[in-house]
Specification:
Helices cover 26% and strands 16% of the residues. With 170 residues, the protein is α+β, with helices and mostly antiparallel strands. Strands 1, 2, 3, 4 and 5 form a five-stranded antiparallel beta sheet that branches. Mean pLDDT is 79; it is low at 1-7.
C-alpha cells in the first residue's frame, strides 16, 4: 500500500497558483488540466517539508581512470551538480566531459520521477557510475566514479536512503 503521506491526489496547488502563473505563464485552465503527477512535482517541495532542490547537491568523484581518459579526467577529481542538474563550476575540478556527465542524468530523472509520484525524491540508491566510452581494451581503462549526495550548507554526505518525515504542524 502506498503511504498516503506522500500522495497528494487532492492537491490542486491553490496556495501556489499565483507563483506558478507568474513563473511559468500558466492560466487557470492550464492549472486545472495538470496531471496528478505534475501537481505532485510542483508541490513536492511544500509537501515533503524541506527544500530539497536547494538543500542538496550531487557529487560525482572519479575513483579510478587507469587508462588515462582522453578528456583528461583523473582520479580524485569531481563534478558537483545542483539538484536541477546544473554543474557547479566553483565546486568542480574535473574537465566537463559529456561522456562522464551523461550517466549522472539518470539520477535526476529518477529524482524528479519520484517527486512526480509524490514520493521522497532523495533515495540515494545510486552509488557508482562509469564513463560509457569503451575502447579497444573493452572498458578496462575507462573512468569510474563514486556518486553521493551531500548537504549544500555543510557538505555532509547524505547516507540515509529515506529521509525522516518532517513533523506536521497541528
Amino acid at each position: 500500500m502506498i503511504d498516503p503521506y506522500y500522495v497528494q491526489e487532492d492537491d490542486y496547488l491553490d496556495d501556489m497558483k499565483f507563483q506558478l502563473k507568474r513563473a511559468l505563464g500558466l492560466t487557470e485552465d492550464d492549472l486545472r488540466r495538470l496531471s496528478p503527477e505534475a501537481r505532485n512535482l510542483f508541490s513536492a517541495r511544500r509537501k515533503l517539508g524541506h527544500t530539497w532542490l536547494d538543500d542538496y547537491e550531487i557529487v560525482v568523484e572519479v575513483t579510478s581512470s587507469p587508462g588515462g581518459c582522453g578528456c583528461g579526467v583523473a582520479e580524485g577529481q569531481k563534478i558537483v551538480f545542483d539538484m536541477r542538474h546544473k554543474v557547479k563550476p566553483e565546486l568542480s575540478d574535473a574537465p566537463l566531459c559529456v561522456h562522464l556527465m551523461s550517466p549522472a542524468l539518470s539520477i535526476f530523472y529518477m529524482t524528479f520521477d519520484r517527486a512526480a509520484e509524490g514520493l521522497n525524491p532523495l533515495t540515494c540508491v545510486w552509488r557508482y557510475l562509469e564513463c560509457p566510452m569503451t575502447g579497444s581494451d573493452h572498458g578496462a581503462s575507462k573512468a569510474r566514479c563514486e556518486v553521493h549526495m551531500r548537504r549544500v550548507d555543510t557538505h555532509e554526505r547524505v547516507t540515509d536512503r529515506i529521509l525522516a518525515k518532517p513533523e506536521v504542524d497541528a
